[in-house]
Write a structure and sequence with these properties.
Distance between the termini: 14 Å
Strand content: 15-25%
Structural class: alpha/beta
Number of helices: 8
Oligomer: single chain
Number of strands: 8
Helix content: 25-40%
Shape: globular
Order of helices and strands: EHEHEHEHEEHEHEHH
Largest sheet: 8 strands, parallel
């Protein structure tokens, strides 16, 4: 298996200097930048929109891993694609036609992901597994940073890993929610390709980004 990728979540960054925070993450050898977009409707919180993402785009050449927690999602896919998202991940519950939404993302030359909440079955993603680049397994209920990791979601990762390997697909598995140095090891063992982490990267070891990213990567 290739080296694990680290996608720091800027939800835990200092929002008063996001551009600098993103530059620092690139210097600290992050692989992607994870951007959580919340609408206060699909999830009980509000974060940032496409205008902010387009302003941040100039600060790094790293791929923007954009997780849309908004509904109805189809109305906004184009805006986020144009703002500079490289990967656009959506929830099955946020669209009337998941396959159609994925095709819309792909038609804009972006990578497409599907996110599964803790209570969402992998059956929601299996019919489109061959169409997407990424499955994002949520290991907390989405909406807020700093929540406790739900260990039972690793079973979902294992099932997905088996399916993807069996079908010989290149679809990556990402996990997000309460990831720290300890459970990162379990996630890797379960078959994860990308770790999303916010609080651990920005707060541990006095906020030493490079050290924290390396510790998550090496486990």
């Amino acid at each position: 298996m290739a080296s694990i990728k680290i996608s720091p979540s800027i939800l835990s960054a200092d929002f008063s200097k996001l551009g600098d925070e993103i530059k620092n993450l690139e210097r600290a050898k992050a692989d992607l930048i994870h951007i959580d977009v919340m609408d206060g409707h699909f999830v009980p919180n509000i974060t940032i929109g496409p205008d902010v993402i387009s302003k941040l785009r100039k600060y790094t050449s790293l791929p923007f891993d954009v997780h849309l927690m908004i509904s109805p999602v189809d109305n906004f896919i184009k805006n986020f694609a144009e703002a500079g998202a490289d990967i656009i991940t959506i929830h099955p519950e946020a669209t009337n036609d998941l396959e159609n939404s994925i095709k819309k993302i792909k038609s804009l030359n972006k990578k497409a992901g599907v996110s599964l909440n803790p209570e969402t079955s992998i059956n929601k993603v299996l019919p489109v597994l061959n169409l997407i680049d990424l499955v994002l397994v949520m290991s907390v209920n989405p909406g807020f940073g700093g929540q406790k990791f739900m260990k039972e979601t690793l079973r979902k990762v294992e099932e997905l890993r088996n399916k993807i390997d069996k079908l010989k697909l290149n679809t990556e598995i990402e996990i997000d929610g309460g990831i720290n140095f300890e459970n990162a090891k379990m996630a890797k063992k379960s078959g994860v390709d990308i770790l999303v982490s916010g609080t651990t990267i920005f707060k541990e070891n006095g906020g030493n980004l490079e050290k924290n990213i390396e510790l998550l990567r090496m486990g």
